[in-house]
Write a structure and sequence with these properties.
CATH class of the largest domain: Alpha Beta
Strand order of the largest sheet: 1-5-4-2-3-6
Number of domains: 3
Number of helices: 14
Radius of gyration: 22 Å
Structural class: alpha/beta
CATH topology of the largest domain: Alpha-D-Glucose-1,6-Bisphosphate, Chain A, domain 3
Number of strands: 18
Helix content: 25-40%
Length: 458
């Protein structure tokens, strides 16, 4: 009898605390075997290849060693890209013509956490169906799952090779996205969050001619995400003290980008999308006059886009869902309020540094300061409350919550919205309320959060 089916993959890969299930050494070995089995079974001819990257967490080295050894024993060649951002890993998959990419990172989570993200040969994150296939193989423990062929132990052992000049190759790619625009005359304040962008971000901007003041770029392995896109107030201070034209903050694995204008205003993903969409509309570079956001996108983004004749298509939270919508509708720009911005013309993954370069390119082309460009977007008051929970119970099973939501919606009328959801990567319930009146928004969010906390809160 097979064990009960279990879900390992969350919104963005497998995450946890190294040494604790599901990131124990034994489970990582099983995960690696299932990955190798999946890739080998999908490859009809030729030698299979997987590239592995990691952020700066101390635990990354051990996870990398286990994955690389186990996968190579399975007859798959392994390429070690070293410290690289998540979008950089997506780029390396295609550059090296690999069958899969593995990124060892817990993204914006604390340093004690880590995770495993998987990319297909096109540099796209695996689909839910593909993840389920790998999960089936992990838990079957009888060899292959129904999705895979027999694990071929007779295959010759694969090689493990270190990729040379990974960062330099990625700098070259990012620079090319500017199509000849340089950054001379621009002063950049940079916050690398002690993360994966630390080895090369400053080099990138300086190579393009910018003057750079940088913080949080000498990681110890234990300080990732202290600062960066998760805590942009530290960047704001640097922008003001250094009198920079723009501040750029990424998160630990470099896929989020938040910017700060020269006056110290923090601009999140919604504002960034509005700026880029507005400029691209003027340049006739926005197919179908549409962009992709999520259910967390501020209502002000919808208003700003419609003012210029542009449509906002909303998906579930997660850059994977944004990318799926971009591909489905054949669009080129999308992203999340958190700072995950996707430029499908360049890369099928969000990239904080690429986002910053595209914003600076607009500043150069228009001759306008970032604060002026940001005026295209006016945020509706929004309150987001995170509640630590002991279980992810369906919201409609929490007593009195549904009735309270109906009451609060009537108070908002047609000038706001309520969104209740669970985090896909953490044990958190999220209450988001948006509307024209700040006091009303905060009051409603507090009322709903109290009900959830009383029922399932920690």
């Amino acid at each position: 009898m097979l064990p009960a089916k279990e879900k390992l993959f969350g919104t963005d890969g497998i995450r946890g605390t190294p040494g604790v299930y599901p990131l124990t050494e034994g489970m990582i070995v099983k995960i690696a075997r299932a990955i190798a089995d999946f890739v080998v079974s999908s490859k009809k001819t030729g030698k299979t290849k997987i590239v592995i990257g990691k952020d700066t967490r101390t635990s990354g080295d051990q996870i990398e060693n286990i994955l690389a050894h186990t996968i190579s024993v399975s007859g798959v060649d392994v390429y070690l890209a070293g410290t690289i951002t998540t979008p950089g890993l997506s780029f390396m998959v295609k550059t090296l013509s690999c069958d899969m990419g593995i990124m060892i990172s817990a993204s914006h989570n604390k340093a004690a956490d880590n995770g495993i993200k998987l990319f297909n040969s096109d540099g796209l994150k695996l689909s839910p169906k593909e993840e389920e296939c790998i999960e089936d193989d992990i838990f079957c423990n009888l060899g292959p799952s129904h999705c895979a062929t027999v694990f071929i132990q007779s295959r010759s052992k694969g090689d493990i090779k270190k990729v040379k000049n990974t960062c330099e190759k990625y700098i070259q790619f990012l620079s090319a996205t500017l199509h000849g625009t340089d950054l001379k005359g621009v002063k950049v304040a940079l916050d690398c969050a002690w993360g994966a962008a630390s080895p090369f971000a400053r080099k990138l901007f300086r190579k393009l001619g910018a003057k750079v003041d940088s913080i949080h770029d000498t990681p110890s392995g234990e300080n990732i995400n202290e600062g960066g896109a998760v805590h942009p107030a530290l960047l704001r201070e640097l922008v003001l003290t250094s009198k920079s034209d723009i501040g750029v903050a990424v998160d630990g694995d470099g896929d989020r980008g938040i910017v700060v204008d020269e006056t110290g205003h923090i601009l999140d993903g919604d504002c960034i999308i509005a700026i880029i969409a507005n400029h691209w509309l003027e340049k006739d570079k926005l197919p179908q006059k549409a962009v992709v956001g999520t259910v967390m996108s501020n209502y002000g983004l919808k208003v700003a886009l419609e003012r210029h004749g542009c449509k906002l298509i909303c998906t579930s939270v997660g850059d994977k869902h944004v990318i799926e919508a971009l591909i489905k509708h054949r669009l080129v720009l999308g992203g999340e309020q958190s700072g995950h911005i996707i430029f499908m013309e360049h890369l099928p993954a969000p990239d904080g540094l690429l986002t910053a370069l595209q914003i600076i390119k607009i500043m150069k082309e228009t001759g306008l300061p970032l604060s002026d460009l940001a005026k295209t977007f006016s945020r509706y008051p929004q309150t987001l409350i995170n509640i630590k929970v002991k279980e992810k119970k369906p919201f409609d099973e929490i007593p009195s919550l549904s009735a309270k939501v109906r009451e609060c919606n009537s108070r908002l009328k047609d000038e706001g919205r309520i969104l209740l959801r669970y985090s896909g990567t953490e044990t958190l319930a999220r209450v988001m309320v948006e509307g024209k009146q700040k006091d009303l928004v905060e009051s409603i969010a507090g009322d709903l959060a109290s009900i959830i906390k009383e029922d399932i809160g920690i």
